[in-house]
Input
Amino acid sequence: MAFPINTYTKSAEAYSRALKVIPSGIYGHQGPAEGCFVPVSAFPFFSQRAKGSYFWDLDGNRFIDYMCAYGPNVLGYNDEEVDEAAAKQRTAADCVTAPHSIMIDFAELLTDTVASADWAFFAKNGGDVTTLAVITARAHTRRKKIVFFKGYYHGVAPWTQKMDYPGILEEDVANNIYVPWNDYEKLAEVFDENKGEIAAVISQPYLHGNFADNLLPAEGFWQKVRKLCDNAGALLIIDDVRAGFRLDLAGSDHHFGFKADLICFCKAIANGYNVSALCGAEFLRNTVSGLTYTGSYWLSAVPFAAGIACINKMKRLDLPRLLRERGEKLREGLLAAAKKHGRDLRVTGEPALFYLRIADDDSLMLHQRWIAEMVKRGIYLTNHHNHFINASLSDEDIKTTVEVADEAFGAL
Output
């Protein structure tokens, strides 16, 4: 069948208005200036409403959404159970001088659920808790240096950025050390060269960066890293902001068979309600208690209620299994469509948050054209970011996605 091609007249008009009053019109990774919307004419810029696996743009075009708000949509947009719990809490209290006691309920649920968690500290964004994790590591060890794996993303605070980025000072990144992913020998060498100076290793549970195929940890990699950190007196921080709860409800460290000292959650924790959490081991409790770190809305009660409902529903659904099965089904369909047209499509990473790349063209132009053809036909992807499966994605949605992929390959 031939799928209709979207037009974006109202979206373009809205973007023109936005440019007059908002830097870049839409700033950050959800805007067209970041390189994931090529050509920009293929993409809508503003949504009108959302439900389940779909959102509708200002022109009324419906999209099967594989970006899931860049991760927070894990159950389906406007999930009734989560929204009902949030609405009920809102009638009682949200942002109050003395925090609502539901905060304790949420922390108890997290410590009962996450294997490496003895306590939970709440904030709003993933970057809030990755920053807190690094501050905690430095406070606990009284050391400065942090080890990163190349291809990382841990937020936008100055310490997460690069020396050549606008506004970033040499002092911001002077204590950052970068090693290749899965290269244990190089990591051990770095520890040997910086004895007594490394505060922590911070990493995603597997490499799911942008503009490159996603890579799983080599067999035994994390167990060796864990031992190396223990022997050196350094902490092991897992940034589970994207992958958290999607691979394992007990945490992605548990999924890969090791235990983090600190683990950061955000995207899937409350199905779009704005809350994040740093969870950690008992021996770091007093260190975190002694830090100066807070925010105006960090103890808001409504997101806590949403988080409780979300985690409980994820448990009932056996969410990691569900996402894995649907992700694998989608992968098989996309690969079959690519093979039919003689294209070398790579689908890498975990099925629950997969990465796509057409490998026929190193310039990435062919891949960008294919993604554009998908989006114009109602399948929302971006060019060079990992994608997400959510629990409301149906077999019919997957079937439609594969049919559109087939037509989009033909359009190339």
Observations:
- The radius of gyration is 22 Å.
